[in-house]
Amino acid sequence: MLLQELKEEAVKLSPSDRLALVSAIIESLQNTPITKADRSSAIQRMRGLLKTDQPTPTDQDVAAMLEEWRVEKYLQ
Questions:
Q1: Which domain holds residue 46?
Q2: Per residue of the chain (76 residues), what is the pLDDT tens digit?
Q3: Taking the model in full, what pTM does it have?
Q4: Taking a C-beta distance cutoff of 8 angstroms, is the pair 10, 21 a contact?
Q5: What's the DSSP call for residue 1?
Q6: Is residue 70 a part of any domain in this protein?
């Protein structure tokens, strides 16, 4: 069964049956060992998401951003 077909069938289930299905999926994932290579690969991908061409903001930049956010939140 393809993933799309499985999703379509899952939507047809009652809420309690869907919850049971989610629990069974989570349980099956908890029994699956995660290798160190998988974990390292995921960490490297996450680091790539955080990369930017812009320099790291200084303490003064962060303070200015916080002040701007507070003004927008509380004064407008």
A1: 1-50
A2: 799 999 999 999 999 999 999 999 898 888 777 777 778 888 888 887 888 888 888 999 999 999 999 999 998 7
A3: 0.42
A4: yes
A5: -
A6: no
